[in-house]
Prior knowledge:
By secondary structure, this protein is α+β, with helices and mostly antiparallel strands.
Amino acid sequence: MQEFSQSPTDPPFVQNPYPFYEKARAAGDFIWWTEYDMACAVSHKMVHAVLRDRRMGRECPPELAPDIPAHLAPFYNVEAHSMLELEPPRHTRLRALVLRAFTSRTIAALAPDIRALCHALIDAFPAEPFDLLTYYAQPVPVVIISRLLGVPEDRADDLVRWSNAMVAMYQARRTPQIEADAIAATDDFVTFMRGYIAQRRKTPTNDLISTLIAAEEHGEKLTEDELITTCILLLNAGHEATMHTLGNGTKTLLEHGVTDITEAAVEEVIRFDPPLHMFTRWVYEDVTLGAHQFKRGDQIACLLAAANRDSLAYENPAQFNPARKGPQNTSFGGGIHFCVGAPLARLELQIALEVLFERCPDLRLVETPQYGDVYHFHGLERLLVTKGV
Ligand code: HEM
């Protein structure tokens, strides 16, 4: 396996990781990424295969479970119940409960609400240049996921703050301050959710939290800790990735002068510049993948954004083509961990982009947008735009 050295905190790489992916793909299905000390699947075919291979998964083999330092325990105690970090049978049970409350009918019924929210946010756009992330890309998913879960919208700022602090734990450059902030945010988030669940137990409504509580009480063994983690996961996963897809997508559409938001255009936005580039899998038994052998305890990273730019899967992959037909992109993962929120994210993106370009046909970039200086979330720092005339 060819070795590649690339610092994940190198600013030019973080701004544009695609040239690195191109070099990596030229080396075959896998590369060895020195800084992560890990094999990475980089071709569309191999990323697709690894995500679906049940001989691998997200849960760490018990004999390799790291000792968690006491000061980080609150964070990892929450993670311990996250479906994203579990495999069957626990994963199946938690995911099934969420899917029961997250039906395609529930999601489709949100469309008028999403549309009205988008219009209200656009009504409040200032005349002078403004950050579209703050005014639009962030509030759309935050408000919608809060409403779906039944969490009061006036807590949205807290949720964003807690969520940002918690997901910072996944970055390559973790500092004691990042850890301390994440622990404080976890404590606040858990306390808030515990209180909120107690309230919903007394007065259930038709929100997702009440549905999950009802499932718990009908003996399907969703413990209170699982319930709390599931809500935190949905709130965290539910807004950050969508916000950055909306930000990156608006930038791409503006740069290419595309304002016709078809279903294919939305899918191309999701393929072209997704926010989450790397997800790992543990290997559970000895396997051969292509020309490479792996053994239990190895880890494999799937470089989702590299797979999306594979010329064996897509014609002219580096070109943004809103009419593209082609294989399903890998931005939402695949296999049993395929993003639970994909139908919601797609609906939000479709409506938010449609309404934005319908209402603001003269929307313009005011500066060249810069990506945030982190690899774990490939998203813009800000997206300064003007409504035009
Ligand atoms: C464009 C926006 C989004 C992107 C790009 C995205 C991406 C992903 C990816 C790549 C995974 C799979 C990780 C893996 O295989 O290891 C995933 C899982 C997940 N996503 Fe999303 N996501 C988005 C929006 C959402 C939304 C809106 C929600 C919730 C409302 C959500 C909830 C989840 C959950 C709960 C999982 C874990 C599923 C499991 O482990 O079975 N995501 N997402």
